[in-house]
Amino acid sequence: MLKLEVRPAPSRVMSVASPLLALSLTVVIGVVLFMLLGKDPLRGLYVFFVEPLKSWYALSELAMKATPLLLIALGLAVCFRSNVWNIGAEGQFIVGAIAAGGVAMLADAHTGRWIVVAVLVAGVLGGMLWAGIVALLRDKANANEILVSLMLVYVAEMVLSYLVYGPWKDPNGYNFPQTISFLEATKVPRLFGGMFRVNIGLVIALLAVAAFWLFMFRVYAGFQLQVGGLAPAAARYAGFSSRKALWMAMLVSGGMAGLAGALETAGPLGQLTPHVPAGYGFAAIIVAFVGRLHPVGTVFSAVLMSMFYIGGELAQSRLGLPKSLTGVFQGLLLFSLLACDTLIYYRPRWRSARSPRSEPARPTNVITPSTPTVEGNA
Known about the structure:
Elements: E1 2-6, H1 12-36, H2 41-49, H3 56-81, H4 89-104, H5 115-141, H6 145-165, H7 201-218, H8 220-230, H9 232-237, H10 242-269, H11 280-290, H12 295-318, H13 325-340, H14 342-345, E2 346-350
Antiparallel strand pairs: 1-2
Helix pairs in contact: 1-2, 1-13, 2-12, 3-7, 3-10, 3-11, 3-12, 4-5, 4-6, 4-10, 4-11, 5-6, 5-10, 7-8, 11-12, 11-13, 12-13
């Protein structure tokens, strides 16, 4: 019989191998899923894992998709390591996009390229503002940050819909719910010319990886956040402020999500529409955990998640599969990871189940009182 036995200490090997094992399980389940849908599983895997890597244009699209996921996941890694559960990064992404779009629409024909910096800063501040609401309610009213941050996602979506259907609606847009197209001066510069859409957001994201690694593992403030998350009692004993950790984690996470929203709005989108929410904020939660809440690990998991996004779009156009298949693969990866993470703390052991009859009889020691002997006279 296979049983799980508690390890004396968490396994470092399984901590690294668990995401790889989870990906393998996701692929196996994906093969079964393609077969059930009546599609060639090899063709399906080719669309998901080979097509996004087969050309320079495909790689540029992959990098463009990975950039917002990486930025949001970096901020979430700080939150989760601090034991602060920000589930509403999608809402902070939307508000960052709204703030960036509002600044971009202020530009005119005489505005210089300096406004790109203002657009990005506005996105960061918008995301921090939305995350600050969560921190304020958690700090002052002891509200659950999971529920508050999640509910604020839908509030942000309603605000976006109000703006693009109302005061910010393009008067020359044939009644479509969208703002005016942003001027070229407000758009984020691209890294390459021609048809490649990847922009300087990729450079910003890679620099953020290095900055977050230094912050989390080489800076005293990052050490305080991690101690507060791993051992709250020890953090209080050392004099670390839990309120400061809460505010810092939420503002950093919200700022990164807002920056991702600004780069997306002033980059490939070029305007605000109701389709700004692309699910990046929720997918970045999976990215953060698959990357083991480590800045370097999130790079690889962001690339993997981007392959799921692009693969889902290609599967829809080439295989006739629903676009929701992207979410299915994301969910499979998350649940596989949660299952495989069990092996970090437990190890499987095979124990043979013996029936009671097969066990040798145990000797029993029966104590019998000695019979006294009576000696009579002959």
